Amino acid sequence: MGPPPDRPQEKTDEEAAAEAEEINDVLDEVKSTTERLLKEILEEIVCINKATHEGDLGAAYEEEWKYAATVFDRTMAYFYILAIIILLISTLFTRFWLDTSPVTSV
Q1: What is the pTM of this model?
Q2: Which SUPFAM superfamilies would you find in this protein's record (predicted)?
């Protein structure tokens, strides 16, 4: 068997205070890092929440514009059909009812 292990030397008050200060510095650094990371996480959550909310508003605006486009399309279709009917009637009216003179060959 070998010799017994050396007993650790007892630390002086100055060494113990320096070690405690070092430990406190490390703990403060960990705490500040944790706080910084939590702030970054909170900022990301706020950003995601804002984007989601804006996306919901965007979808609502999109639906309103689709409805407006549908109304506009139908209105233009009615104007187109009305114009075709008026042109058809005016063409038939001028050709058959107004022109009563017989066709003469020259």
Answers
A1: 0.41
A2: Neurotransmitter-gated ion-channel transmembrane pore
